[in-house]
Design goal:
heterodimer, A: alpha+beta, Ubiquitin-like (UB roll), 5-stranded mixed sheet, elongated, B: alpha+beta, 7-stranded mixed sheet, about 30% helix
């Protein structure tokens, strides 16, 4: 029904924001010739068409299914933070530069600011909140605490998720694997020293 | 009177130990709620967005918001600028909207039409042409408006008025308008009482403003008699704060007279009075709450124009919460920058390295306000000096305090000039620094002790080579050093501490933990004083419901909060002793708190468990008020003035110009340390932030458009995990340090990295790279000039 509202292609104004770009590239490119349908052929492949109004979206987050009504332009990060108040992932650069919004999608680290919520359907989304059962921290979280791996803490959830993925994939990481695994996250207060020691501690004790 | 002084080493149960930050478990688990995370359950928030000026300087001719106001989902629109007014930097706020979701708010912003009349602008901070600077004259009305709009610090504003007077006639109406624009009462008072002078400037103002030149001793004679004169160019460009949690707030009106603000701030207790005047409500009706904040570094002391705007939008939206957090580009464009500072320096010395004369012509910008003058020469009080400074008023956006305002810039200039002098004299720089150490004044002994420790930790004597003599193939290696100082006396702070009859303890304070470990500091002091474990203390901070405590800036928080806490905890303990003494058949003065008991001093046999002791309190808890400063409760528990020495070991690739820091050492004192782990963490963090600004950070302004070219985190580069080498931190503790009292640590260790790394690079490649950051292009340019010389 929402799709029926589509009357014309999205106008591209002089100032295309990244959000517009996601909106355009994620949804409307294939929708132009086939208004009112849910699935279209694009380059020989069936493609689902959403929006531009609100559309039903189902996200499986930390093992729980969540049904939402979202515009197709809503990112996974904004869906988590603003629609589900799951706020561990932070919005900082909002364009895949800093890693503060890192989550796991099907076990892989992903910048939640840079995929659309509609693209994250039918996938297992894991956020930092799932690591803690009650007050019990994972060894990697405890290692961040023990080694002073956070100051203001705004980058910390992203780093914790990135480190968890690193150690899940490489239980005994080489220095090169650590460099690669943590090169996608930035900290402003300067906690890399503590994080380095936290990774070393967790690599010994398990993540 | 009870003894409030800090316990000596053998009586400290927690103070000075290595204790993990108390809020770390919340931060690593994503539970910690920041202002940006605030989302009241069941109450959908509105999203604020701001239309910003695309011009560095422009007159606002007209604003048409009618199309935006008609859009479905747009709830409120607020025009921020005066029609006919002038914006002074690109990105300045013009109009804000609140809408039901972010996309709608963005759509609404694009539907607003603003007509601008672009005006000539300046974004350069290049060296002023000779004779360009105008002597400061009386402040004109336009200058006053600019200074208020650009948030010139009160102290600077008032000092200027006192020195130069005004050239306009401020009537009550004008003063009221100034007040409405954000001028403090102190500024209004200074304007009101300023002396009137005829205007000295006619026509357009020069961007260059000369500060008064100062001369001390007899520099001409000293330079004439010097064995060696070394000259050089040094400096650091404008950088930003780049807080990961951007500036902003969520504002809501629970009723029409009361405002509730979740704001990202370094100054919880100060925000209500900042918001009250522009919103026309009593400060008492403004409540501020903040659990955690994602970085400020000096840029978050005030409620900003966008925070006031969020509150106005909320009021228009019948009190619904409006979130207005800055986008990343705005955060880098308008929410804070560290002024640049450059200088041509001439140093005169004797053959043995004794420095006799200093001369500097310095300049720099902090945007429309001009920017501060770095304290030159830094730390070393050279006996004969001549200094002049020109501040450049331009359109790059306002400056804000950045950790240790003006000190890192002054260190780069001074320590660079001294390092070049050492090279000219063929001296090991450490010998030159120590030769002149008497010029550092009160902290001389601290520096001498720190030099010994730092040199040992980095292997200075074994590794140091004269300039350019440690090159292997295309890799040059070098060592550099610097030292620094800072004040750090504790700020005003108040708290309420209660011991309840069931044994629980709580402490309430309107301070904030900006990532510096303030929570941990307060709890350690309370627990240590009461002989309890840290888990026994319930701490409440970050709310204006609690007693006011100062802004977290200038390294004043540890001294402030630990002093008010200590006094409250001692008073509460005394009151508890009075209640407990009869049960132990003794007098209150014979009691002590140890290991979760209240006992007769030195007699573990005559004791009550903490819980038993508290059961003697009666029905009503003991509640005491602690404050700092407090002349009635001596001694002073805080102090001022610390010293630190840093050394850097770097590698420079002579083909690519890429600098890599291989190792850094920081040796630092900060009086009595409350939590050694957090103190060390502050130093590690400062070294890392220092490596970042020494190698990467620059706010790049485009001279043709007046826009910032890198308002994002891809091209405004911060140091990453892989840029950080081995770091070694050593805190000076024990005799000579502990008894000075608690002194803050936020600023000092971030001062020296730029200077130490710059000196290490000069040592490696044999030539000075004048300005930080030491980017590959600058390194290659310096190498090219050396080769061509």
């Amino acid at each position: 029904m929402q799709d029926d509202d589509v009357k014309k292609p999205v106008e591209v104004s002089a100032g295309v924001s990244r959000r517009d770009f996601l909106k355009i590239s994620g949804a409307s490119a294939a929708a132009v010739p086939l208004i009112g349908t849910k699935v279209v052929e694009a380059a020989g492949t069936p493609v689902k068409v959403y929006g531009p109004g609100k559309t039903p979206v189902t996200l499986t987050i930390n093992g729980k299914k969540n049904s939402l009504q979202l515009e197709p332009r809503v990112t996974l990060l904004d869906a988590l933070r603003d629609h589900l108040t799951i706020t561990g992932a932070k919005r900082v650069c909002d364009r895949a530069e800093c890693g503060a919004c890192t989550v796991l999608v099907d076990g892989k680290t992903v910048y939640a600011c840079s995929i659309l919520a509609i693209e994250a359907q039918d996938k297992a989304i894991t956020t930092v909140e799932s690591f803690t059962q009650g007050d019990k921290l994972l060894p990697i979280q405890q290692a961040f605490v023990d080694n002073d791996g956070s100051q203001c803490g705004f980058c910390t959830p992203g780093f914790v998720v990135a480190t968890k993925a690193l150690l899940d994939n490489h239980p005994n990481p080489t220095p090169e694997q650590i460099r690669r695994g943590l090169s996608g996250n930035l900290c402003r207060c300067g906690t890399y020293h503590g994080i380095r020691h936290a990774v070393a501690q967790a690599a010994q004790k398990g993540a | 009177m009870p003894d409030y002084s800090w316990p000596n080493a053998e009586n400290r149960s927690l103070i000075g130990k290595r204790i993990s930050r108390l809020d770390s478990p919340d931060k690593v688990s994503g539970r910690a709620k920041y202002s940006y995370d605030y989302h009241p359950p069941g109450n959908p928030i509105l999203y604020g967005k701001v239309l910003r000026s695309p011009y560095a300087k422009a007159k606002i001719v007209s604003v048409d918001t009618s199309a935006a106001e008609k859009m479905s989902g747009v709830v409120a629109v607020e025009v921020i600028q005066k029609i006919g007014g002038t914006v002074q930097w690109a990105g300045d706020e013009i109009v804000a909207v609140a809408a039901i979701d972010e996309g709608t708010a963005e759509d609404a912003i694009r539907a607003i039409t603003v007509k601008y009349e672009p005006l000539p602008f300046v974004v350069s901070d290049a060296e002023p042409p000779t004779g360009a600077a105008e002597a400061p004259g009386p402040m004109m009305e336009d200058d006053a408006w600019d200074a208020i709009d650009n948030q010139m610090p009160d102290g600077q504003f008032i000092a200027y008025l006192k020195e130069h007077g005004i050239s306009f006639h401020p009537n009550d109406d004008l003063l009221k308008q100034f007040k409405g624009d954000g001028a403090s009462d102190a500024i209004l008072d200074a304007i009101h009482t300023a002396e009137y002078h005829e205007p000295t400037v006619s026509g357009p103002r020069s961007p260059y403003q000369k500060a008064a030149a100062t001369t001390q001793g007899d520099p001409d004679k000293a330079f004439g008699e010097a064995d060696v004169v070394s000259e050089g160019l040094y400096g650091s460009n404008v950088i930003t704060h780049c807080c990961l949690e951007s500036h902003g707030s969520t504002a809501e009106w629970p009723d029409k007279d009361h405002l509730f603000v979740h704001i990202s701030t370094q100054n919880v207790s100060g925000v209500p009075s900042q918001m009250a005047e522009p919103l026309g409500v009593p400060a008492a009706n403004v409540r501020v709450h903040q659990d955690h904040m994602g970085g400020g570094f000096g840029s978050k002391f005030s409620a900003d124009r966008w925070d006031i705007t969020a509150a106005k939008l909320s009021r228009k939206a019948r009190g619904k919460p409006v979130r207005l957090m800055l986008e990343r580009d705005a955060e880098l464009q308008v929410a804070g920058a560290r002024p640049s500072a450059y200088a041509r320096v001439k140093l005169g010395a004797k053959r043995d390295g004794t420095i006799t004369a200093w001369q500097s012509q310095s300049w720099g910008t902090g945007g429309p306000g001009g920017g501060g003058s770095p304290p030159l020469p830094y730390v070393f009080a050279v006996p004969n000096q001549r200094k002049e400074h020109t501040s450049i008023r331009n359109n790059i956006g306002p400056a804000r305090a950045w950790r240790a305002p003006n000190h890192p810039q002054a260190a780069v200039i001074t320590m660079g000039a001294m390092d070049d002098l050492a090279a000219k004299l063929n001296l090991d720089p450490m010998d030159l620094w120590l030769k002149n150490i008497a010029l550092t004044g009160a902290r001389r002994q601290t520096y001498e002790e720190e030099f010994a420790v730092a040199a040992d930790l980095i292997g200075w004597k074994q590794k140091w080579r004269p300039r350019g003599q440690n090159v292997s193939r295309n890799i040059a290696r070098g060592l550099g050093l610097s030292l620094h100082t800072w004040g750090g006396r504790g700020h005003a702070s108040q708290c309420d501490l209660s011991i309840h009859p069931d044994g629980s303890v709580d402490i309430k304070m309107g301070t904030q933990d900006i990532g510096t470990g303030t929570r941990t500091t307060i709890v350690i002091v309370t627990a240590d004083t009461l002989g309890l474990p840290i888990e026994a203390i319930n701490l409440y901070i970050g709310d204006t419901l609690y007693p006011p405590s100062g802004a977290s800036g200038g390294s004043t928080t540890p001294g402030g909060v630990s002093s008010s806490t200590r006094r409250a905890a001692v008073d509460a303990r005394e009151e508890l002793f009075t209640k407990v003494a009869p049960a132990l058949n003794t007098t209150p003065d014979q009691l002590e708190c140890k290991n979760e008991t209240v006992r007769v001093k030195g007699d573990a046999g005559r004791s009550l468990s903490w819980k038993q002791a508290c059961s003697k309190i009666g029905a009503v808890p003991i509640t005491v008020h602690g404050k700092n400063p407090d002349k009635d409760r001596s001694p002073d528990l805080t102090n001022s003035g610390v010293g630190g020495v840093q050394m850097a070991d770097v590698e420079v690739d002579l083909e690519t110009g890429i600098v890599k820091v291989k190792k850094m050492v920081a040796v630092q004192d900060c009086g009595l340390i409350i939590d050694l782990k957090t103190a060390e963490g502050s130093c590690y963090g400062a070294l890392i932030m220092g490596i970042s600004y020494a190698l990467f950070e620059e706010k790049v302004m485009d001279k043709s458009t007046g826009l910032m070219l890198n308002p994002n985190m891809q091209f405004y580069r911060l140091a990453g995990y892989n840029d950080i080498p081995e770091l070694v931190v050593h805190m000076m503790t024990g005799k000579g340090y502990d008894e000075r009292g608690v002194i803050g640590l936020g600023e000092p260790p971030v001062i020296s990295p730029g200077a130490a790394i710059s000196n290490a690079v000069a040592n490696a490649i044999g030539v000075r790279v004048p300005f930080i950051p030491l980017t590959p292009d600058r390194v290659l340019t310096a190498l090219g000039q050396k080769a061509g010389a």
